[in-house]
């Protein structure tokens, strides 16, 4: 069987509080680069809470820096942010706030989806 690079969407839609699942999303995204895939991180629903600057960043710091070193793309659903009263100033730098058309594009341009 021949290996094929894939565009992979890592969809994080669960809360970061009291769970390790969001941390695992970051870790999976970094691991995708090691397998020569092209991952995109998309935070939607309650997953956008893990992008808040006030969230304990220690578990994410190593993976975020490594992910960005590989030119990884991080998207946050604008609608999810608005529905939770979160402004773009309250989230990490290097995060693209994606309107509905950009979210739709991310969902259609990727071949594989992994949800956390």
Written account of the structure:
This protein has 116 residues and is of the alpha/beta class. 36% of the residues lie in helices and 21% in strands. A five-stranded parallel β-sheet has the order 4-3-2-1-5. Helix 1 runs parallel beside helix 2 (58-69). The protein starts with 6 loop residues before the first strand and ends with a strand. The model has no long low-confidence stretch (mean pLDDT 88).
Shape summary: globular
Number of domains: 1
Strand order in the largest sheet? 4-3-2-1-5
Strand percentage lies at 15-25%
Spatial extent as radius of gyration: 13 Å
Largest sheet: 5 strands, parallel
CATH level 3 topology: Hypothetical Protein Ychn, Chain: A
Low confidence ranges: none
Please tell me the CATH architecture by its name.
3-Layer(aba) Sandwich
Average pLDDT reading: 88
**What's the number of helices?**
4
Give me the count of strands: 5
**What's the CATH superfamily, by name?**
DsrEFH-like
| H/E element sequence | EHEHEHEHE
Termini separation comes to: 28 Å
- CATH class type: Alpha Beta
Salient structural properties:
116 residues; alpha/beta; Hypothetical Protein Ychn, Chain: A; 5-stranded parallel beta sheet; globular
What's the SSE blueprint?
Elements: E1 7-12, H1 21-34, E2 38-43, H2 58-69, E3 73-77, H3 78-83, E4 96-98, H4 100-109, E5 112-115
Parallel strand pairs: 1-2, 1-5, 2-3, 3-4
Helix pairs in contact: 1-2
């Amino acid at each position: 069987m021949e290996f094929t690079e894939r565009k992979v969407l890592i969809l994080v839609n669960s809360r970061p509080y009291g769970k390790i699942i969001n941390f695992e999303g970051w870790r999976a995204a970094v691991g995708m680069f090691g397998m020569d895939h092209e991952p995109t991180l998309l935070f939607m629903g309650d997953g956008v809470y893990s992008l808040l600057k006030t969230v304990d960043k220690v578990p994410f710091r190593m993976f975020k820096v490594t992910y960005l070193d590989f030119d990884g793309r991080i998207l946050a659903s604008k609608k999810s942010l608005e529905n939770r009263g979160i402004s773009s100033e309250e989230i990490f730098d290097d995060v693209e706030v994606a309107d509905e058309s950009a979210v739709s594009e991310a969902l259609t341009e990727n071949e594989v989806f992994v949800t956390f």
